[in-house]
Every structure is written in structure tokens, then in C-alpha cells.
Design brief:
This is Aspartate aminotransferase family protein. By secondary structure, the chain is α/β, with parallel strands linked by helices. The chain is built from 16 helices and 15 strands. 46% of the residues are buried. The mean pLDDT is 97.
Length: 444
């Protein structure tokens, strides 16, 4: 059904080129217009309430109407609404936030560089690595290895790191200095009869073979999410990160942890790196940093990365990179208050307390005849459906629509339905979420 003429839905589609959208489908059907939020819920312009089962875009930790964040933004807006951090200038909110992130970091880090989104942060990390290699007199050491089904953003560089076909097709990507290795989805990609340990060993060997084929002297870094989010909530098998890091250390290759989704409590620790024993040289975070009330991201680098950058900036006169709104004082003030709320309300503890119930309800969905797999860690999980023959993604698209009818917003990643609710969710609301999911699945 096409949107009513002159309705807000019709006006939106007439004026707005939507991201991640089939534009012709949108023209025919209109948009779901969200009007307000309250805790884990959002309401459309007709007043219908939805459980926001994706926390927006994997990102709203503290709920959709936290007055402390509104107040923090208003106070900072009234005091210093904007200033930059270029050319040895700074301001208190960015300084305090940098200090706080270094305090929270899962491993010892040296410096924090602010950007505005996860895409910008990963793009910047790539530039930092190239700059560092030149500083070290290793101009050939520029390649970065990412993973099939990994997601790292949508700029030209970060979309190249992303390992999803629809982020490459028709954009002439990826860039040639980005290489992709295998995806650690055991149930989907294990060979027949292959144990988890054997699967992990094969992935580590494939990575090492790729490094040797490219030349270790040309490979600078490896990037990975602790849990792969937009690729389908892919949880690494036991021992995976230990095996990967052993290969990287053998060939002096930096590790970038993309914590854009996992950071600030999602997996049951402040960072996914802690959950999986990762020791990154560079850590990228965004989303739950401000609960997405303001655009902000941050790149944490250790001294191994920072010192060559500093030396090169002295040699040539500058670290010639930055964004107008990077370290924005209002965003930094909101981030500081958001992190206070996460700590004061022990939302990481809430994730740990609720994770068993979340996992049990998800496992029950996994017993459905259409289910291929159900998996979770902390408060992130998914139900992966068996694909319909000749129509991969059709079942996922149908089910996400049925979920929306039942008042639950999910995201279909092919035939995988993802769940990533706000960290403030309660035990009763988890039941409410999965009851709606079961009703929709029954309609399939």
C-alpha cells in the first residue's frame, strides 16, 4: 500500500534518500515514522508502541528518554556549544572523556583520538596505520586483513574493510590494499565432521597462508569485531581469538578491535575484548559511547602505535587529519554522563544477570522447524532461519515484517533476525520481547 498523499510518510519518501533501503520499495510503501521514545520502547506517529529490539542501531544503552543526557547536553550547549580540538586547542569535556576512556580500556592504551562515527573511526585507523608504517620506514607495510561478513563502516576505506557484498557492489569496492579472510561462523562454515577446535585451527592456518601469500612485510594490521554484528551476530568459537592473535604476533601485525557494537557492556563486560581475551593495539568505539544521543566515536591507540605517529608529526610538521566536529563538547558531555549512568546503574551487571534468560528464550526459538541456529552472548543474539530454496533472505524479510506487526523492531540480515535491546531492559521486558517474537514466528 502506498503512503497517503501529503502524509508525513509520503513527504519523507519524497524528500529523503534513505540509507540501507530499496528506494523503489520505499516509494511504494512509505516509511515507519517514529515520533518518541520511552525506555526500551519507541512510538510511531499513530501512537503504536514497539519494543526497540535493536536499541536503534545496536546503540542505545540507557533507553530512549534518559533525562540526565538531555540535561547534560543542554548545560554544555549553554556553556560552550562548540569548539574544535585542532592545533593544540582543547576543552574540558573532551579532556575528561579521553581520560575516562583510557581508564576503562581493556588493555593499556596511550592516547584517544575523537571522530564522529564508527565508519570515520575505522577510516581514521586505516590512515593512522599507513602514516605509522611510513614513519617506521616501512612504506610497503600497508595491507589490512579483515573478515568475510565483518562490518566496519561505509566510507570508501571502512566499506572496503567491511566484508559484505552489498557494501561493495556498484561502489567499485573494496580497495586493493584490503584483503579478507574466513568468517568464524562454525555452524555455517565448518566442514563435515570438523570439530570447533579443528575449525579454529583451519581459520588460523588460512590467515597465516594469506599473510605468507601477500608477504608479511606488506601486511600492517588485522581488524575484527569481538562479535560480528551486522554480518549476522556471529559469535566466535572457543579459542578463536587466541589462535588469531598468535598468528598476528608471529608476523608483527597490529590488531584493531572494532568495539563499535560490543563496547560499553553489550557482551557482559565493558568491552568485548575482555570477553574474548583480545589485546588490541587500536580499539575503536562509538554507538553506546553516547547511547547515540549525539554522534561520537573514539580511537584508542597504544604506545606502539602512538610514538611513531608523534615522531612523524614532528618530522613533517603535523598529523594532518581531523574532523570539524571531532571531540565536540556537547557530544563529549553526553558521553561522560552516559558512562556515569552505565556505571552507577551497573548496566554491565544487568547484562550478566539477564543473559541466561535471554539465551534460554532465544534457544527456545531455535527449536522451531524453520530455525537453522540461535545464538547469543550477553544481550546480543539472533535467530537464523533456514533459507527458502532459491530465495535467500525471503524468510528473514517476511519475519521482520511480522515482528513489526507484533510491536517488535528487529533487523533482518538475510535470513538472520538480530536482537540487541537497550541495556536497561528488565526481566519482564525480555519475556515481553520474546512473547512477541513467538507470536510472529507462529504466523510463519
Amino acid at each position: 500500500m502506498s503512503p497517503r498523499p501529503n502524509s508525513l510518510e509520503a513527504r519523507d519518501i519524497a524528500a529523503h534518500l534513505h540509507p540501507y533501503t530499496n528506494q523503489r520499495k520505499a516509494e511504494a510503501e512509505g516509511s515507519l515514522m517514529i515520533d518518541r521514545g520511552e525506555g526500551i520502547y519507541v512510538f510511531d506517529t499513530n501512537g503504536k508502541r514497539y519494543i526497540e529490539g535493536m536499541a536503534g542501531l545496536w546503540s542505545v544503552a540507557v533507553g530512549f528518554n534518559e533525562p540526565r543526557l538531555v540535561d547534560a547536553a543542554a548545560k554544555q550547549m549553554a556553556k560552550l556549544p562548540y569548539y574544535h580540538t585542532f592545533t593544540q586547542k582543547g576543552h574540558e569535556p573532551a579532556t575528561l572523556l579521553a581520560e575516562k576512556l583510557l581508564e576503562l580500556a581493556p588493555v593499556k592504551m596511550s592516547k584517544v583520538h575523537f571522530t564522529n562515527s564508527g565508519s570515520e573511526a575505522n577510516d581514521t585507523a586505516m590512515k593512522m596505520i599507513w602514516y605509522r608504517s611510513n614513519a617506521l620506514g616501512q612504506p610497503e607495510k600497508k595491507k589490512i586483513i579483515a573478515r568475510i561478513k565483518g562490518y566496519h563502516g561505509v566510507t570508501i576505506a571502512s566499506a572496503s574493510l567491511t566484508g559484505l557484498p552489498n557494501n561493495h557492489r556498484s561502489f567499485d569496492l573494496p580497495l586493493p590494499m584490503v584483503k579478507h579472510t574466513l568468517c568464524p561462523h562454525y555452524k555455517a562454515f565448518a566442514n563435515e565432521g570438523e570439530s570447533e577446535a579443528e575449525f579454529v585451527a583451519r581459520l588460523a592456518k588460512e590467515l597465516e597462508d594469506l599473510i605468507l601469500a601477500e608477504g608479511p612485510e606488506t601486511v600492517a594490521a588485522f581488524i575484527g569485531e569481538p562479535v560480528m554484528g551486522a554480518g549476522g551476530v556471529i559469535i566466535p568459537p572457543e579459542g578463536y581469538w587466541a589462535a588469531i592473535q598468535a598468528v598476528l604476533k608471529k608476523y608483527d601485525i597490529l590488531l584493531i578491535a572494532d568495539e563499535v557494537i560490543c563496547g560499553f557492556g553489550r557482551t557482559g563486560n565493558m568491552f568485548g575484548s575482555t570477553t574474548y581475551g583480545m589485546e588490541p593495539d587500536i580499539l575503536v568505539c562509538s554507538k553506546q559511547l553516547t547511547s547515540s544521543y549525539m554522534p561520537m566515536s573514539a580511537i584508542l591507540v597504544n604506545d606502539r602505535v602512538y610514538q611513531p605517529l608523534a615522531d612523524e608529526s614532528q618530522k613533517i610538521g603535523t598529523f594532518g587529519h581531523g574532523f570539524t566536529a571531532a571531540g565536540h563538547p556537547v557530544a563529549a558531555a553526553v558521553a561522560l554522563e552516559n558512562l556515569k549512568i552505565i556505571e552507577e546503574k551497573d548496566l554491565v551487571g544487568n547484562v550478566r544477570a539477564l543473559a541466561p534468560k535471554f539465551a534460554a528464550r532465544l534457544a527456545k526459538l531455535g527449536q522451531h522447524e524453520l530455525a537453522f541456529d540461535a545464538r547469543s552472548v550477553g544481550l546480543i543474539g539472533c535467530l537464523e532461519l533456514k533459507p527458502q530454496e532459491g530465495a535467500v533472505g525471503a524468510r528473514g524479510a517476511k519475519l521482520v515484517g511480522l515482528l513489526q506487526e507484533e510491536g517488535l523492531i528487529s533487523r533482518a540480515i538475510g535470513d538472520t533476525l538480530a536482537l540487541c535491546p537497550p541495556l536497561v531492559i528488565t526481566e519482564g521486558q525480555i519475556d515481553e520481547l520474546f512473547d512477541a517474537f513467538e507470536r510472529a514466528l507462529a504466523k510463519m
